[in-house]
Amino acid sequence: MGQANERADFLVEQRSIEFIPHELRHGKPSDLMFVWFGANMELPVVAAGATTVASGLSLGWAVLGILIGVLLGTLLMASHSAQGPHLGMPQMIQSRAQFGYYGAAVPLIFVVLMYLGFYAAGVVLGAQALYELAKVPVTAGIVILSLASTVVAVFGYNLIHRFERYLSYLVAAVFLVLTVLLVTRHHPGEITPVSTGFALGPFLLAVSVPAISQLGFAPYVADYARYLPASTPISSVFWYTYAGVGVSGAWLMILGAALQQRFLGGPVAAIGTVAHGAGGTFAAITFVALILGVLSINALNIYGGYMSTMTLATTFYRRWRGGLAVRLAFILPVAAVATYLGFLYRDNLLGSFETFLVIVMALMSPWTAVNLVDYYVVRRGEYAVDAMYRPDGVYGRVNPAGMAAYLIGFAVQLPFMHNAYVHGPVARALDGGDVSWVVGAVVSGLLYHRLARVRSSADRPPRTARVS
Ligand SMILES: Nc1ccnc(=O)[nH]1
User: Fold this and answer.
1) C-alpha span between 185 and 203 (Å, rounded)
2) 90, 307 in Cβ contact below 8 A?
3) In 3D, which of 113, 115, 117, 110 has the Cα closest to residue 363?
4) Which of 170, 232, 287, 319 is 20 to 30 A from 310 via CA?
5) Coil, strand or helix at 418
6) Residue 468 pLDDT more than 50?
7) Contact 83, 222 (CB under 8 A)
8) CA of 122 relative to ligand 1 center, distance in Å
9) Ranked by mean pLDDT, which of 188-192, 250-254, 356-360 comes out on top?
């Protein structure tokens, strides 16, 4: 099939985890702003914001925590994005440079679990919105939304880019009106806010949860930049991504906190009440936008889950590549498991979502640190592409530097964790505040820097293998 066809939006993408050849590269860095704005203007982000006030902070402190968390998480997330055009391959494949060909399976497994968890939270909230819109039972809604996200994921990269661009305009308009309504009107069912002020533990959580929500994109953010020309300036990739995901994250989380402060019954019902203030038609448009938002983010989660499970599987069966049959063979099971998790999540969403997020973060932040230190400090963007796809390449089977930095970075977090399963002594001293992910990232990053330097003369790829 010709190259022009490979760029069409309504043809199933033919590439998967392989290096994207330079002649197929297309698009502009500003596309990324739309992808990440559209993807992040979604209900789970509102729910993440709601957790800050739900844990007892006043709105002012919640907003401060959200802003700090979003700035930090987005900084790391956008630094991963910047690798996409240069590397031209999915982010998790490139993890083999830090963890080794087989070693990369460890963070990969956690990444797949993370996508599934985000998926489930999104689909439940989306199904609630579908119920508000058309009284579709939540169970049926979960199935309908899952099917739609699966179709978008099957078409892949170009359709996802196009979808997020149009969606961006719609959700920006809808949330602008909602924000104005919330600020300027009094709504039926509104409660008088009880300002509970500051407490250290909830404040630290109000930093961590937003940071995690933003950083949750890190393992796949570069995938959506991997078809951009390799000459795309790294700073523009960084800033367009930062703008898209940062503005949407801060906006919707602050909105979520404000809704939680003034309404009972969760974010979907609260948005419905506010939207009805501008009439039934606007409320219907709002729910359509919310449903499309969930559909779109979950297409990304399935697509990310597909590429990650494919990376995992091809670690052992190297011959599998693109092709519709292989694509479906990975996408359908990922979507089915994700949908099933949605059913399990249905009843205690906010509580389980928060627990899920802090556990995910403990597993992801050491990976983020190792990956970023490797890319920006140790190897400075020089990678041997072929070696990513071979167990006998320069990156070896298991890279002890990456594995040790990752595992130790995870272990040192235990005393700092505070969740449904672990109550670490340091977290208790911090009034239950969980900042374990910061500790994990710093320890893993420093340790990897040290260990990789010791080994670098042994496994540094030859200079001729520069990607760009
Ligand atoms: N914040 C998020 C990161 C990754 N996936 C999501 O659905 N949401």
Assistant:
1) 28
2) yes
3) 110
4) 232
5) strand
6) no
7) yes
8) 9
9) 250-254
- Of all protein residues, the one whose alpha carbon is nearest to atom 3 of ligand 1 is 216
Question: What number of CA atoms fall less than 13 Å from residue 282's CA on the CB side?
Answer: 16
Pocket of ligand 1 from Cβ distances under 6 Å: 44, 118, 122, 213, 216-217, 297, 301
Structural domains of the chain, ranges and CATH numbers in brackets: 2-348 (1.10.4160.10)
Between CA 17 and CA 32 the distance in angstroms is 20
- C-alpha 350/C-alpha 331 separation (Å) is 27
CA-215 nearest atom, ligand 1: 3
Q: Closest by alpha carbon to 153, among 331, 21, 33?
A: 331
Residue 314 has a pLDDT of: 87
Task: Select from 45, 115, 118 the residue to mutate for testing ligand 1; criterion: most ligand atoms less than 8 Å from CB.
Answer: 118
Cα-to-chain-centroid distance, residue 461: 30
Model confidence at 467: pLDDT above 70:
no
Q: How many CB atoms lie within 10 A of CB 420?
A: 12
Q: List b or e across 243-264, with b for residues whose CB sees 16 or more CB atoms inside 10 angstroms.
A: bbbbbbbbbbbbbbbbbbbbbe
Neighbours of 27 (CB within 10 A): 19
**What is the SS3 assignment for 165?**
helix
pLDDT at 348: 66
Q: Kind and range of the H or E element at 123?
A: helix 105-134
Pocket-testing residue among 300, 353, 361, ligand 1, by greatest number of atoms within 8 A of Cβ:
300
350 pLDDT band, cuts 50/70/90, is: low
Amino acid occupying residue 226? R
Q: What phi, psi does 195 have (nearest 5°)?
A: -80, 115
Which of 344, 288, 348 lies closest to 136 in space, CA to CA? 288
24 touches 231 (CB < 8 A): no
Torsion angle of alpha carbons 245, 251, 257, 260, nearest 10°? -100
Torsion angle in degrees (nearest 10) through CA of 193, 195, 196, 199: 120
- pTM of this structure: 0.92
Q: Could you count the other beta carbons within 10 Å of the beta carbon of residue 67?
A: 18
Q: What is the DSSP string of 188-220?
A: TT----------HHHHHHHHHHHHHHHHTTHHH
